[in-house]
Every structure is written in structure tokens, then in C-alpha cells.
What does this fold into?
Amino acid sequence: MSAEGADQVVPMLKALADPVRLRLMSMVLSRVGAEACACELLPAFDLSQPTISHHLKVLHAAGLLDRDKRGVWVYYRARPEAIAALGTLFDASLAPA
Amino acid sequence: MSAEGADQVVPMLKALADPVRLRLMSMVLSRVGAEACACELLPAFDLSQPTISHHLKVLHAAGLLDRDKRGVWVYYRARPEAIAALGTLFDASLAPA
DNA sequence: TGTCAATATTGATGTATGTCGATATCTGCC
DNA sequence: GGCAGATATCGACATACATCAATATTGACA
It folds into this structure.
């Protein structure tokens, strides 16, 4: 893996390398349509609303979650391509040819 | 994914969420036997020897690399179980059932 | 035993990150 | 317009981390 290749994947890994964000991602993926309202995610954690909002923003910035505002509520949807890219990372790119 | 489950996987993700360590891991995996001497890895980077030693230690502590000292040289070998665990994370645990 | 080469540890430093309280922004509704 | 609730942003703080120079440790060998 080249330095450029690493620089492409590392932001996604960094985004997931946090227990709160990994659980957020898992929660979104477990919903039908891989979509969840921020209001459903917040009560699952013993953290403040700004902190959860911050983590969701990090996941969004990494390309792992799409953001969709519907009225007052914001829905986050998992991006399957991003997950697939990480899956193949450990199956193909990282593993020997 | 539970909080405990996340806490188990996050250390491995954190270890890989660094461009230098991801490349180190990739380099080790690309060698025959998924094994490489530290002396081969160092010149591939524009970083000091202590820094590379530190990164290898992080990967070892995360359970991603085994350490084997042979004389003056130290060989690092990838742990396939760890890689497999991460692969299934994105295929099964993280993705919806 | 002494020297040299490979690797690890220590201590320091600048930067990044997780968290919070306070506040701002946006949207539906009266 | 004005209020209430959902979400985001800001500023601050403590901690974690990547990196280096200097030094220590280890092992081979003369």
C-alpha cells in the first residue's frame, strides 16, 4: 500500500477508531434502511448532545454517513460503499496478493 | 454492537488509523510468511528509527503483529486472526444481520 | 573485554482530540 | 411574530499522540 493509498483510507479508520463513533455507526447500520434519526441515537449514550453531534459530524466528514434533514430532525444514513471499501481493505488491499 | 464489543475492537482500529502504521502493516503482510525485519521497514519511511520502533510497538500491543527477536534483528509477523477479526467486523458485526 | 550495529526507552514538545457548558441556528406550531 | 424543541457551533480544557534527539540495551564478533 502506497502512502497515498494509506492517506485515503486512514480518515475512515480514524473516524471508526473511537468507541462512541463505532457504536453510532453500528446503530445506524442496524436500522432498516441503515438510517437513524439523531434523536434516537442520543439517548443511547451517557454523553451530552453537542458531543454526539460532534461525533456524527466526524463520521459524516469521513464519508461514512450521509446527512438528511427532514424538518426538525436529522437522519443519518450509512454509506455502503464506504463500508465495503473498508471490508475489502482487510480482504484484499492489506492482505497479500 | 455493545459498548464492550466496541472497546475490544477499537484498539485495533486505533492502531491502524495512522498512515505510517497502516503502511507498516501492509508491508509486513506483503512479505512471504507475513513477516518482515524491522531493518527492512525503517528505510521505507522518512522518519527516525525511534519513531518506527514506537509504531511497531503500538501494532504489537494491539495484537496485530507478533515480535520475534533473532540475534540482533527483530522480525515482526502479522497475526492473521486479528486481520480476520477486522474483516468480519465490516462484513458481519457492523453490517446489519 | 571492547567495539559496533540494531533496536528500544526516555524525556520533551507541538499538535490533535474528546468532552462539556453556553449559545446559535433552524423548524414547526400557536 | 414568538415560543419550544432539535441540532449545530463556539470556546475552553484536559488528555492523548506523533515525533524527535539523546541515551540505554542487546547481541555478535574480534
